[in-house]
């Protein structure tokens, strides 16, 4: 016994998820926390000390802070606008359902 079924409705242009490009120039900033710790002359010394910490140790902690700050900046600058995120969420839900 055959039953009639309706084909899934085609989404309109307002329901389409916007295309995402990860080719933002802001992503180049992510190279800074990778490249800066590789410059050995920056920390090849004992002085100046911070408290009793030699330069090498406190500069390593500064590199961690540099990495966090750079990553946060790139995230904030490349984040999708709210309307685009909602459209993407609707499109993902629609794709999961059928």
UniProtKB/TrEMBL annotation:
Annotated stretches, region: Disordered: 1-22
InterPro entries in the cross-refs: DUF3311
Keyword field contains Transmembrane: yes
Keyword annotations from UniProtKB, A to Z: Membrane, Transmembrane, Transmembrane helix
TM stretches of this protein: 26-43, 55-75
Pfam family, one: DUF3311
Superkingdom: Bacteria
Protein name per the record: Uncharacterized membrane protein HdeD (DUF308 family)
Species assigned in the record: Petropleomorpha daqingensis
Lineage: Bacteria, Bacillati, Actinomycetota, Actinomycetes, Geodermatophilales
């Amino acid at each position: 016994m055959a039953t009639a079924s309706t084909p899934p409705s085609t989404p309109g242009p307002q329901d389409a998820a916007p295309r995402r490009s990860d080719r933002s120039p802001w992503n180049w900033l992510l190279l800074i926390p990778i490249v800066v710790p590789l410059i050995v002359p920056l920390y090849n010394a004992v002085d100046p000390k911070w408290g009793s910490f030699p330069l090498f140790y406190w500069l390593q902690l500064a590199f961690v802070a540099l990495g966090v700050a750079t990553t946060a900046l790139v995230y904030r600058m490349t984040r999708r606008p709210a309307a685009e995120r909602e459209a993407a969420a609707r499109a993902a839900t629609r794709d999961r359902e059928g």
